[in-house]
TrEMBL record, chains A, B:
Residues 42-202 form the Ferritin-like domain. InterPro entries: Ferritin-like (IPR012347), Ferritin_actino (IPR059125). Pfam families: MiaE_2 (PF13794). Gene3D superfamilies: 1.20.1260.10. The lineage of its organism: Bacteria, Bacillati, Actinomycetota, Actinomycetes, Micrococcales. This is Ferritin-like domain-containing protein.
């Protein structure tokens, strides 16, 4: 069953390349060889999105002010929309969502426990770092999917704005309480290792570790650079 | 400021009554005299919806199976949609959502703590009982709002289906584990008192307690009857 989904579809070359196609082609160079089959891609990514909902609503619950609760409720809605779009792809492939998400639950829940902060600010920072990094990663990983599914998966993961509102919650909080910055910077640095391991766990590695690493390294370098930019925008040292 | 919203708007009589208008008119007889001003109605109801999101995602997080997590994620989406529609009404009235929700946070969070179950099944049952009862109540309470706002508030609270999916989660769980029924029946009975107190806390009482009670009692009798039907459908003694 799964092997059917590993079958490569012939690519139809478009007569011209739009900027988006060019970007997609560049990404395909990176992770296509290590990308999981559609069932693994979608099952893992949808299961992760359930933990993102939990992470954001825990932070929402612990946030003392209405403005922050409201912002976190709205981004929970964004993550839910992405989750529903991923499940819609699972169903379009006539796969059983329970069957394909269940094998990933333990892994993503353990990841969620390891990255759950103690204070609500740490919890928001965790959401910012882990959802940001893993969404960037999964969009790159989509390069290995059949073309149509790839486009729909990338669109699913691009639904709504999450980065902006979460950034603004943290920005307000740091401005109101500047000593928080150094604690959050340490906390966010602490998160990167677990987040990278979670991303790696989705890759299909081969018998040639040196070759695999040569594919993985440039992508992770890019993802860490994006993470660093995310921290810089908050005035935090990555 | 608040007094502005207490001002009664003249009602425009429609030439004919649709069944919906008749129902609304019947309800207006019940709670209109005890209904809070729009700012209190919307602030309290929106704050409650944030705790509904927390309640449902806690249950989702603790539910072991994907099918239940998925169902609870979807009803979280329903509650979020209702929340956003309520906040849209707050903003339409040019009120500050933080100012009008903040005074209700402590009360609704204390209510959430008191009605939070220990097991995930109790947590789902809590959501079923408390969200079901309080949504029915707030729809009746809307009878006291100016006509246009009333219609929009009732529409906001009617977005999506919450009762059906939550019922089915509990139904499956009780079928798989019949001894659970008596524990859940006790737990749900335990919830009704706190839920009725939460509802009462939204009423504006007057100097004539006997008159107030004569208005409240028939409404609460109806709401408890609806609660009993909800329990009956699950085979639980209310």
């Amino acid at each position: 069953m799964a092997s059917w989904f590993r079958r490569r579809r012939p690519r139809v070359e478009a007569p011209t390349l739009t900027p988006r196609d060019t970007a997609a082609a560049a990404l395909r160079v990176d992770l296509a060889d290590l990308a999981p089959a559609p069932d693994l891609f979608l099952g893992h990514c949808a299961a992760l999105h359930l933990t993102f909902v939990e992470q954001l609503t825990t932070a929402m619950s612990n946030a003392p002010r209405v403005a922050d609760k409201d912002a976190l409720a709205r981004v929970t809605g964004v993550v839910l929309t992405r989750y529903l779009a991923l499940v819609a792809e699972i169903e379009r492939l006539q796969l059983d969502k329970s069957d394909i998400m269940a094998p990933h639950l333990d892994g993503v829940e353990e990841f969620e426990r390891r990255t759950q902060g103690n204070s609500w600010q740490e919890q928001v920072a965790s959401a910012h770092v882990t959802i940001g990094f893993l969404t960037d990663f999964w969009i790159r990983l989509a390069a290995g999917l059949p073309a149509e599914l790839r486009d729909r998966a990338v669109a699913a993961l691009g639904n709504g704005d999450l980065d902006g509102p979460v950034h603004r919650v943290l920005e307000r909080e740091i401005a109101a309480n500047p000593p928080l910055a150094s604690r959050l910077a340490l906390w966010c640095r602490r998160l990167v290792g677990d987040t990278m391991l979670q991303a790696r766990s989705a890759l299909v590695l081969h018998d040639d570790p040196a070759r695999d690493e040569s594919k993985i390294e440039p992508v992770f370098t890019e993802l860490v650079a994006e993470h660093t930019r995310r921290m810089d925008r908050l005035g935090l040292t990555a």
